[in-house]
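Researcher: Here's a chain I'd like modeled. Treat it as a single chain, no partners, no ligands.
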Amino acid sequence: MNHPFLDLPPLTVEHFASIERRVAELLGTRQDVVITQGEALLPLEGCIRSAARPGSTALNIVTGPYGTTFGNWLRDSGAAVVDLAVPFDTAVSAPAVARALAERPEIDFVSLVHAEAATGNTNPVAEIGEVVRAHGALFMLDAVASVGAEPLLPDAWGVDLCVIGAQKAMGGPAGVSAVSVSERAWARFAQNPAAPRRSYLSLLDWKERWIDGGRKALLHAPAQLEMLALEACLDRIAVEGLTGVTARHAAASAATRAGAVALGVAPYVPLDAQAAPVATTLRVADASLVVARALAADPAAPLAAGGGALGREMIRVNHYGADAALPVVRACLTALAEALSADPSEALASAEAAWAAALH
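Model: Modeled as a single isolated chain. Structure tokens:
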């Protein structure tokens, strides 16, 4: 018997290219876009290994766990690495980046995560991009958790490599991702003899065989279900409107933070302006135990304890994609109130008021 997920006609090059164009439209970019057939770590590693080489120096901005991963890849590629680390409950500032660049004029590559879903902070990319552009370094941005949740303007912000994934605010699967690549970045890749070639990590292969070839032949068979899911995400965003999607995520963040404060729980990221709209992190003693109790009360609530050592002090309330909704925020606050043996009524009222205020 036929199966809607299995008995599909092959994805044509024209269809693939049309999805690629729509990703570029979502990002508002005129740069080349490459859709990569895997989770966003694939293009992130591909970008770093294509740009970094012995003799290069990278400024690796660490505001969460992914910054550590980027630093490891940069070092493994032979680059000298300057880590600019800030506490995970805050954001990096543009002046701090400017100072780091001034101290090391040889820096030619900068890596940054826009929004940190794991720690709940977000960074001021527009201001940082301005100082990076003035310095002349290549700028790579991990926008996996920010795309669709908050403004993302890679061209206006001087981002040379902007990596996105479908699994957060876009509401799609983790198995497909994309990167916009500036002309400066392509030139840097082409000048690097160590850049991956004939490899799944190779962006230059896509440039030479797909883009420069007129988009007539794909490098390999595309992950068809993931591509169709990405297209469905783009369809859904188009129906709601990108401004509507970002407003809904901002409202979910405001409502969760207000409700948590009413419960007597402090946000892990204290400043509203530095809070990521995809996830709200909360500072709670014995966080893993509290989450276990909350999930016992409501197994469907998108709650998790922080990873590693953060599991002792941080709870993450995920409100991205379809979960950026007032009923989900209400369910999370109710489950947390149950875990803390607290009355949820004031928290729910505060959340609803914050949600309404954010959308009006």
